[in-house]
Each structure stands twice: as structure tokens, then as C-alpha cells.
Amino acid sequence: MTSSPSTLQVVTAALEVAGLIEVIHGSNDVEISGVTQDSRTVQPGNLFLAWRGSALDAHDFVAQAAEMGVAAAVVERYVPEAEIPQIQVSDGRLAAALAADVMLGSPWAELFTVGVTGTNGKTTTALLAQHLLGSRGAAAALGTLGLIEPDGSVREGTGGLTTPGPVAISTWLADLAEEGAKSVTVEASSHALDQRRLDGVRFDAVVFTNLSQDHLDYHTDMAAYFEAKSHLLNLMKTKGCAVINAADAHWKNLPVEGRNTVTYGIDEPADLRAEMIEPGPSGTRFRMVSPSGEVDVDLPLIGRFNIENCLAAAGVGTVAGMSLDAVADRLASVPQIPGRLEVVARRPFTVVIDFAHTPDALRGVLTMMRPLTSGRLIVVFGAGGDRDRGKRPEMARAVAQVADLVVITSDNPRTEDPESIIDDIVSGMNGSPFERMGDRREAIGYALAQGRAGDLVLLAGKGHERYQVVGTERQPFDERLIVEEQLGRMGEAV
After folding, report:
1. Domains identified in the chain, total number
2. Are residues 135 and 224 in the same domain?
3. How far apart are CA 199 and CA 320, in angstroms?
4. Structural domain range at position 478
5. What DSSP element (H or E) covers 6?
6. Does residue 336 belong to any structural domain of this protein?
7. How far is Cα 386 from Cα 414, in angstroms, rounded to an integer?
8. Which of 18, 12, 17 shows the shortest CA–CA distance to 73?
9. Which of 200, 285, 355, 372 has the most CB atoms less than 10 A away?
10. 366 with 407, same domain?
């Protein structure tokens, strides 16, 4: 979908209400036919959105965009060589989100919208919520995997970021509304919230899963990280509801006074609780209890944290008006979540791929797997480059506490030396035995060669990703195919 034709005055009015306008350069009585934040996608008549980024300053491209026919620009600093009307604002990121929303006709108003944030569990919770809301009509999800269509497929060209930029968000929401979708669940990363990418959207329900150390290379400390996450509260609709994990102490500081809330938990007092938990090798049975009643749930997913994700999604379902019985019926048929405890081989031993890439996520996955494994727990993991170095030794400590055999390798090294990243990880092993292999393919092959009947091999960190980022390039790397190939060489069929 393209933006509806409008005038710059309409955008200007929205920015004035938000108190963002500093100076209007030129006439704002100009017709604009679309909106873009990327000079590579400029079309004549577009409104160009520019702000200073951490890596690029879009103001460097305003003049070029003007030569390509843009009608006007929203900027943080005036660009005199671009002879087009320019609306100078105090916050270009926020202005971009509001402008994109105005140009696309506030499509969120036509949808039941859900925002999900937290360190771990965003993707699973979002997909569980999508599945539940699918009982009310066509439901989509937007996040780490891309734009998930109501039929479960991924829309081409939508992957890359957990939460895309404001133009993409508003455009995709408009597309979904036009195509007849009734709801959409959006993963809200801390980066996106801090950078105001979602500030043009308003949500019927917002979910807070958990908070643990991650992304401190960006946020500097946990206080700033919490502040970024808590901004999602500000994006609720007037009658919206916050669904909050009662087990996470950080969320007790959320400013929820006067707002609608639903809490969930296992061991804590909460509006939605799981009791009588019966874990199994292929699923989990439990009783879901709420003030309005209780119901038995047969969840075809394993792990305590998936019970929490399930309760979070159930909270969304209740906000949407679903009964507990309807929630339980839908949860019984949830599909496998890509890269989240994804079983890719069951013989001669079990091989699981999971996206766990933080200390808490690793600890949670391994603690859950331990009692389900009759043999040894073998773990292959690394840490991403150009990201929070402080969590690397903590990841090692989490793994060393539970695993029987540890193979430390690369993840997405990006522009860092993979061996230096591994050095950081190794510093947290505290004398526990491990193998070190910089080549991740070789590390996977080694781990599989050690496996025997009853063992469980966990490949942690990559999850749904089918690439490795080396330098600034994505190189094909699909762990599913690698496992199939390696087991085939061993004479074993997946």
C-alpha cells in the first residue's frame, strides 16, 4: 500500500500538536503523495524523513532526495542546498513515526494491536498471541522472523530487524488492514522503543515478559534499559491493558497506576496462574487459574518459560474478550515456534535449536532440559560481536552450571575478532571443562560426533537465523541443514 495523497499541512498539524516543530522553512501548502526515510526508495512527490542516526546522518541525503523529486522534508537541521520546504523539528525519530502514521491513515485504529517487550520470550509470546487471536479473524505478527501472515508464512522482504523503522511499520499495518486482518502482534525491542519507531502506533494490549541483562552496549545500564522497555506503556490506547509478568521484580516499578493491568505467573499471586504442572518430553499439561474460573491446558511445547509465555498470550486473549475455555482450546494446537526449542533430530539422540543468547535464557533452557534428558546435556554456544561484552562470561557461567559437555564457538562475530569474543566467554568458565572451536560448523560437527543414545545436543544462539554475520556481510548458515548433513555423514537419518 502507498500513502494517501495529502498536504504537508496535515503532517505539520500533527507535529505541532506533539510540540516538535522549531521552524517551518518554505510553504507547507504542498501536496505530498507518499513518505520515505530511505533515499534509495524516493519517489517524486514523497515526504522525506531525516534524522541523525548512530551510523548515518540522513541529512546528508536530503539534497539528493530533492533532486529526485521529493516534495518536502522533515529534518532536525535545515539543509539550504535542498530547495524544498523543510519542517525543522526537535526530534526527527519521533516526528518520522508521527508523520508516517498520518500519511498512512493511522491503520492501527482498524486493528486489535498487541505490543510485546522483554528480554526473552518476545517472539514466542507474539506468535502464541497471534495463534490465539486467529480465532477472532485473520491475525498477523511482526517481529524477529519478519511479518508473519495469517496463514503462518513470512512475507518476503520483511525480515532483518526485530522491530522495523516507522515507515515500514505503518505501511505494513496499513497493508494488513486493507487485506482484511483483524489483529496484529508486534515485537517491541528496546532499541525500537528508545528510538521511537513505534510512537506512531497505539496498542490495545502491551505485554512485559521479563527483564535481564542484554544490550547494555547500547543502553549503558539496567536503569536505561528498563526505561526504554517501560516506554511501551505510553503507547497503549486509552482503554488498553498491560499484561505483566508478576515473577519479574523489575516490572514492579512500572508506572501502571490508573491503567488496566493483567498479571500472570506460576509461583506468584497473579490474575492468571499456572498450577498442577505436568511436564513431558513433547508437551506440558497444567491448570490455568483466573478470577473468572479455571481450565486445563494441554500445551504442545516444553519448558517452564513456555508456560509463562503461554500465560502472557492468554492474558492478551482475555483482553480481546476470549473465554478461558476458548484460550485453552487454541493453545492445544499451537505450532512449533521456529528456532525456539525447535527439535531438528530425534535419533540417535535429540538435537534442539534455540535462540537463547542471554545468561537468563540459557539458564532457563538448560534447567528445563536437564530433567528431560536421560543422558548427557551437550551445549554449543557463542556470543554476538559488537554487542554487550559484559554478558559473555555470565553466559559461560550459566552453561557451566548445568551442561555436561560444552563447546564454545562463534555466533555472529560481526566486526569483532571471533577469538577475542571466545576469550571473553571463556573467562566465565571458572575451571569447568570445555572445548573451544572458532568455526561454528566444525563445533556443531564435533558436538554431534560426541552424542549417543539418550543425550540431548543444544545449539544455542542462532535460533531462527539462517545466516552468520561476518564483518558486515550475512553469509548463509542454516543449522538445520548442517545437522542433517553431519548426521548423514555419521550414517544417521534425521
Report:
1. 3
2. yes
3. 22
4. 342-489
5. strand 6-7
6. no
7. 7
8. 12
9. 200
10. yes
Check which CATH number belongs to the domain holding 224 and give it. Answer: 3.40.1190.10
For residue 16, the domain's CATH number is 3.40.1390.10
Say if 416 falls within a structural domain: yes
Strand (E) or helix (H) holding 331:
helix 324-331
Task: Write down the residue that cell numbers 496463514 correspond to.
Answer: 151
Helix ranges restricted to H, 405-491: 418-426, 440-450, 479-489
DSSP character string of 75-131: ESS--TTS-S-EEEES-HHHHHHHHHHHHTT-GGGGSEEEEEESSSSHHHHHHHHHH
Question: Exposed, middle or buried, 157 (CB in 10 Å: 0-12/13-18/19+)?
Answer: exposed
Residue after which a domain boundary falls, among 284, 310, 331: 331
pLDDT in tens, the chain (494 residues): 555 567 899 999 999 999 999 999 999 899 999 999 988 889 999 999 999 987 789 999 999 999 999 999 999 999 999 999 999 999 999 999 999 999 999 999 999 999 999 988 899 999 999 999 999 999 999 998 889 999 999 998 887 667 788 999 999 999 999 999 999 999 999 889 999 999 999 999 999 998 875 655 665 787 888 989 999 999 999 999 999 999 998 899 999 999 999 999 998 899 999 999 998 777 899 999 999 999 999 999 888 889 999 999 999 999 999 999 999 999 999 988 888 888 899 889 999 999 999 898 899 899 988 888 899 999 999 999 998 899 999 999 999 999 999 999 999 999 999 999 999 999 999 999 999 999 999 999 999 999 999 999 999 999 989 899 999 999 999 999 999 999 998 877 65
- Strands 236-245, 260-265: pairing kind: parallel
Amino acid at 80: P
Indicate the pairing of strand 236-245 with strand 146-148: unpaired
Residue 314 in domain? yes
